[in-house]
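#struct-help
A.M.: can someone run this one for me? Single chain, 97 residues.
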Amino acid sequence: MKEINDKSTDALFKAVLQLKNTDECRRFFSDLCTISELKSMSQRMEVALMLKHKNVYTDIAAETGASTATISRVNRCINYGCDGYNLVIERLEKNDE
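D.P.: on it. Structure tokens below:
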């Protein structure tokens, strides 16, 4: 994570932490990212959710349109990454209860 540990990245993360709801997130990220970037991030989140629910790669690829390379990368992050996906997914599932 050394490559994303700098002042400008910290400023971005602090800005994200100021957002209070989905509408504010949508507005901020629409200004910040291209449509393609947003779609890529959303696809990776959808892949992560499906992986956590034990879906197989072929089903995930068919439903999300993600490549097997993307699915593999997300899977690697879930299993060996910084636990970001796991943290968020656990919180989402807790809020759904």
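A.M.: thanks! The two ends are 32 Å apart (CA to CA).
D.P.: also worth noting: The chain has six helices and no strands.
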